[in-house]
Amino acid sequence: MGPYFRYILVSYNDTKRGTMLLKCFFLPFVVPLFLLYLRSTVSIVYSKLDLFSRSLCHQSTQLVFMQKRKDELLKKIQEEFNISKWKTAQYISKGYDHDVIILDKKMIFRFPKKGDSIEMLKDEITLLQFLSSHIDAQIPHYTHVSKDKSFAAYPILLGREMRKYRYQTLSKKDKLSFAKQVAQFLNQLHGFDIKKIKKFHVHRQSPQKNIKNLQNNVKKYLFPHFDKKEQICAQKFLQDLQSVVKESEKYFSLIHSDLSEDHILWDEKKKKISILDFSDREIGDRAGDFAGLFVYGPKFVKEVLSQYHFSDDTLFERAKLYFYRCTFFIMVDAYKMKRWDKRLADIIFQSGYKMFLQRFKL
């Protein structure tokens, strides 16, 4: 028997043994494992498809609700002001306090979402009428007010939201002009005698009550989601904040209370600012109006402070603490929102949590 023939015979015998091993060992054990893996994969795919389907259904329901709400608000506008024609109608519902309709990019109609917001809108309208003759920056001037004062409208203010990325593209000259105008606005707003604005029923902050509520909410809603390091960091911050707010009442004035990048407009052509949304106005620590300015960087805040008339030794540090405090407000509010929109609440919570990690460098 030649070597080539012997090689073929051995190979044949090995193949037979391999086939027997396959039948006796491989098939009984491996095939069931493969089928189990296949079943688990199909189950995961089905589960993801089901989740996707539910998400689409949720989004579809939301869209139907939003369209219905938009139609209701447009009908109110038609009936109240006899406005029957428009080319575009944009509906914005993301705000906590108001629904908004923008008609033809010219008129902004604001509809309070809660009963107490209706009363606050009435006071906001009269306060803004008073402020308009004392403040250089453009602010909303209501020209349409419903008979029951449950909603109102003002001509849209020129400019675009001064987001951080937009500020960074400004020339040095424009950055200085922007800082100067913000300082001027704060000088004028904070300069009012508190006694003279009592008639506008402006809410007065309760610093001790507010910090206690925040501490309780952080421990109740956020600590279960924080690791040990994050809990220690939050506790230390809240202690620092508590020591600051004890003395804050001596710095009280009329404040905007939500002076953030989405409420400051910049008109690129005229190089002028406009200030939006006075719905959170209150009598409070003037440092609160500097908190939102930290988004442009500490250097910008110091530039504004250099032209500010009511500065004090601790204002910068208080403003920085209030800037960090925003992250807790976002997360707590998101957690409470879960009752009526879990998906949106989760998105907002994650955004606030990410902000918390970044600002506290965790």
Automatic annotation (TrEMBL):
It comes from Candidatus Magasanikbacteria bacterium CG11_big_fil_rev_8_21_14_0_20_39_34. Residues 89-317 form the Aminoglycoside phosphotransferase domain. InterPro entries: AGP_Transferase, Aminoglycoside_PTrfase, Kinase-like_dom_sf. This is Aminoglycoside phosphotransferase domain-containing protein. The keyword Nucleotide-binding does not apply. The chain crosses the membrane at residues 20-38. PANTHER family: AMINOGLYCOSIDE PHOSPHOTRANSFERASE-RELATED-RELATED, BIFUNCTIONAL AAC_APH. Keywords: Membrane, Transmembrane, Transmembrane helix. It comes from the Bacteria. Pfam families: APH.
